[in-house]
């Protein structure tokens, strides 16, 4: 197993690594550093590194008035997939999610990310809905873990 480490972005350099991974995997909804500075106050963000190379990032969103579930999102850059890194990052997300309460666990994947959808389904997630953000042409797929009390 490679030398994998996780860092919660507290500075702009690490936040830029998180941004790079997100914007590479979700090019239809690129996020600015200003948006990410605000999001890191509300969500748990982490960057996954192999040695000093950013290979993935994650987001864990706590439940809120709109969504009673904890949302977990694990992203691994394509050259680093199929090495078990996504499962390790996802397991970290679940550990955080367990501390946040919530009715269940859900995730969201860009519909064009077929590898991400296959990964989520392999973990037991089932599709709940497909939705399109304003101005977008590629929908997102919301998925939930059945049997985890998910409010679908």
Explain what this protein looks like in three dimensions.
- There is one protein chain.
- With 152 residues, this protein is an alpha+beta fold.
- It has a single domain, classed as Gcn5-related N-acetyltransferase (GNAT) (Aminopeptidase), CATH 3.40.630.
- It has four helices and seven strands; from the N terminus they run βααβββαβαββ.
- It has a seven-stranded mixed beta sheet with strand order 1-2-3-4-5-7-6, sandwiched between helices.
- The protein is globular, with a radius of gyration of 15 Å.
- 32% of the residues are buried.
- The mean pLDDT is 92.
Quick overview:
This protein has 152 residues and is an alpha+beta fold. It has helices at 12-25, 33-42, 85-98, 114-122; strands at 4-7, 44-50, 53-61, 70-76, 105-110, 126-131, 140-144.
